[in-house]
Task: structure prediction
Amino acid sequence: KLERYQYTGLYTFFYSNMSSVVVKKYNIALRRSPILTKCITGAVLSALSELVSQWVSLSAEEKEKKLNWVKIGLMSLYGGLLNSPVNHFSYKWITNFTSRKVAVKWRAVVQLACSLGIVSPIQVFGLLCTLTSINVGKIDKKVLVNAIKSRYLPMLSSSLATSTIILSIAQKFLAPEKWSVFFSLAYAILGTGQNVYLKFQK
Result:
């Protein structure tokens, strides 16, 4: 029993030290190359989210079915080349603007308004166009227009509610330069969780 406790203690100590080193190195990379680090983070998180979503959608009989690696790769490109840069530059502008032009007591409210009025509509539009094009297998203008007409507003309303909560947390606990990383992580977790939930509701 003593040996087991010693092993558990050593494992916890090693794991906590490794986690601390990883976080420290990541923060250094974030300071030195913010946009590159955020793009890589967004790409990895989007790919993992899509991978897990596809895996849980397979039934026990379909486990031998091949995963759609093309879609995983395309979602990774979306996360790294579209979503992360939009987050980075949008919130950089918002925080710079509000720090120079807005009084402290109104700053959080204005940041939230800018996020909901500017960032969320752009992100939802990009995500909807990306998912529609990937599912269809090509960029079809007619299909995109129909998708925007039928799905944009429901997706946007859901995004606005989620973004309000996520940004409120970020404003309280994180430095502005880390907001986009937090958003990528939060949306990846929420998206994956939603797909898992829908799978078990079937």
Notes: The first helix runs from residue 2 to 32. The CA atoms of residues 124 and 153 lie 9 Å apart.
